[in-house]
Amino acid sequence: KAEKRAEHNAIERARREGLNSRFQQLAHLLPNLHNDTRPSKGTIIERTLAFVKEALQKEEKYRYEIKELRHTNRQLLKQL
User: Where do the domains of the chain lie, and which CATH numbers do they carry?
Assistant: First the structure.
């Protein structure tokens, strides 16, 4: 039984270390967390959500701009 518990503890420790490693990788990818030496998991998730939300808003804005530019381009081509 002690061996089983030790094995389970080792597996759980490896799982936690893997998660912590992924959290740190995510933190390093975020421009707004570059200067934090050891942000909390909550901070990492919070900033990730903000980053993704901002990226989606920018994407929507750029898609709209492209649509408008294509429309303008068509109008200009008609004038030729």
Answer: 2-79 (4.10.280.10)
